[in-house]
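Q: I'm teaching a short session on how sequence maps to structure, and I want students to see two examples side by side rather than one. Could you give me a first protein with its sequence written out and its structure tokens following it? Keep the formatting plain so it prints cleanly on a handout.
A: Of course. Example one:
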Amino acid sequence: MACNNTPKESAPQKEETNTEANTSTEEGIHYEGVIEKETQELVDTTILLSSNNEYTQTVVFPGHEPVTHKGKFEWNGADKTIALIGEDGKKEYYKVDAQVLIYLADPNKKLSPEEEAKVTLHQK
């Protein structure tokens, strides 16, 4: 009977639509962290991926107000990446790994572990 309790604990994290939790339950999967962008600035970044292939991204550059972007995202199962597609059609790529998103300034460049550490968002 103890085995039955474990799946019940993990299942609501993905399936319930509960207003008590804002992370991976209410609207999708929530990632956040401080990542280094092309400008070499550390940017406080939050991404919410919804089950309907829509995303909400909030970024806060040092000394600025938060800016929120919304759009669709595409999943590429072959290379385990997602592309956030902005309203202007511009794509921003992230590698999907175990409970993290890794920002890819250049989706064709392989990052070292040190570089990945600077651009990783963690699932919350």
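Q: Perfect. Now a second example for contrast.
A: Example two:
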Amino acid sequence: MKSAENLPAELHYDLRLVMNRLGEFYLCIPQPLEIWAENQGPTQSDAVIALDPGVRTFITGYDPSGQAVEWGKNDISRIYRLSHIYDKIQSTHDSIHGKVHKRKRYKLRRVMLRIHKKIRCLINDCHHKLAKWLCQSYRIILLPKFQTQGMVRRGKRRIHSKTARMMLTWSHFRFRQYLLYKVREYPWCWVIICTEEYTSKTCGCCGHIHRKLGGSKVFRCPSCTAELDRDINGARNILLHYLTVTSKEPIYAGAGTYPLGPS
């Protein structure tokens, strides 16, 4: 049996052997949380970044220096191709019946599970790398609530089924939970959960609200004719809202917890 990582010399906690639906076994060994030293953080005392969650681009970030970061911009096409293959295999699986095709259905289910695992691993890899980079590079991370369930609920949603599926696939809530878990390792880093009302529809130059923006990728202001990337404009407006409103309100956090902004 080969291990992906070196096993510790001494075990201080109980461990578990877990088997997934593919029959793969994982040995789960709890480890103490490693806390970074304060002097390992970013040198800028005002290192802050505002994040704008999305679908075409998983996360768009903007900081006061004017740097814009797009994370997961080209990954959605690969994930969509895997999802399309999954749908075709599932359609074939559901179309065959009877004991004669029992073995074939079993093999198709195995293929579907492997594709699902591949998609999950791609999403997890994106989440983990982004969370680590954010915590190591910034002292304050502004992450707005992304109400995915409310936007994809049937009968009430205003988006296409393809967009709804990609929104669920990105697992924005799971990323938020992982980021809040990861930030415990970095004593200089704070995560502030904020809101994003009208941040995409508001012009970052003149403040005009573009109520007919729709799903356009480019924000074209009908008032001052400014042209901005929709996601970057949204992230910049989240940062402006924090600097002008939220940062004036007191934020409290106990030892070992994370600070939250207004919910």
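Q: What should students look for in example two?
A: Point them to this: The longest helix spans residues 102-137. Also worth mentioning: The mean pLDDT is 83.
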